[in-house]
Amino acid sequence: MYGVFMATFYIVATPIGNLEDMTFRAIRILKEVDIILCEDTRVTQKLLKHYEINDKQLSTYNAQKSSVSFSKISNWIKEGKNLALVTDAGTPGISDPGSELVEKLKSEFSSEELKIEPIPGASAIVAAMSAAGIPAAEWTFLGFLPHKKGRETLFKEIAKGERTFVFYESPHRIMKTLEKLAQVILDNRKVAVCKELTKIHEEFVRGSAKEIFAHFRKNPDRVRGEFVVIVSKC
After folding, report:
1. Contact by Cβ (8 Å): 204, 151
2. Residue ranges per domain, the chain?
């Protein structure tokens, strides 16, 4: 039976584009922790180098392939090591396997044994909502839309217009999604597409679903980067 571990697991938000998106607190935490769990160590190394954070132990933890097992993470905590979880961009756990890791940690350890501490910062969802010009008092976040199962059901729900919906979309699927929205969304509803947030080619396109679909169909060179799509309620 283990006693009080006095270990802390930090969930650290990282830049969604511009490296200056980092908070002072996030930089300090990354300097102080013993181990950093990364989505991609190459991306994290670039961030650490920018902020002159040297000689850190990095381990990969993502949905596809992880170089470290949960048992190993658990053992580090039992040894009293402080860990930080980061993704390539944004806040871990939001449409990200980090939420599953946190759930496992909460099942494995009591609050006296492990402190789980969020270090808030950049979020593509919040950044998009703040500048989209669509009322943001309440909205529903859908993450990435499913490829097949449940996809049509979600479009039907979005089409009803009972609430504002926000979701992520990849450059490989954005045109198919915009075309579908143009078919089911009434012209009086506002849609905003936000891409390349905080990067050089950041862009906000706002209008009806048909207007936005036409915009990107005429400008295929702009169909790149990650997208946040916002559909206003009726």
Report:
1. no
2. 7-119, 124-231
* CATH number given to 7-119: 3.40.1010.10
Give the span between the Cα atoms of 152 and 78, in whole angstroms.
Answer: 46
- Write down the mean pLDDT value for the chain: 93
Q: Is the pTM of this model over 0.85?
A: yes
Q: CA 27 → CA 19, 114, 188, distances in Å?
A: 11, 21, 44
Q: Is the Cβ–Cβ distance between 84 and 12 less than 8 Å?
A: yes
- Class level of CATH domain 124-231: alpha beta
Q: CB burial class (10 A; 0-12, 13-18, 19+) of residue 75? A: exposed
Show the tokens assigned to 178: 């915009």
Residue pLDDT, tens place only, 97-155:
788 999 999 999 998 899 999 999 999 999 999 999 998 889 999 999 998 888 999 99
Burial code of 3-33, b = ≥16 C-beta within 10 A, e = fewer? eebebbbbbbbbbbbeeebbeeebbebbeeb
Q: Residue 108: what are its φ and ψ, rounded to 5°?
A: -80, -35
pLDDT over 70 percentage in the chain: 96
Residue that the structure tokens 């045109």 belong to: 175
**Cα–Cα distance measured from residue 180 to residue 155, given in angstroms and rounded to the nearest whole number:** 8
| For residue 1, pLDDT beyond 50 | no
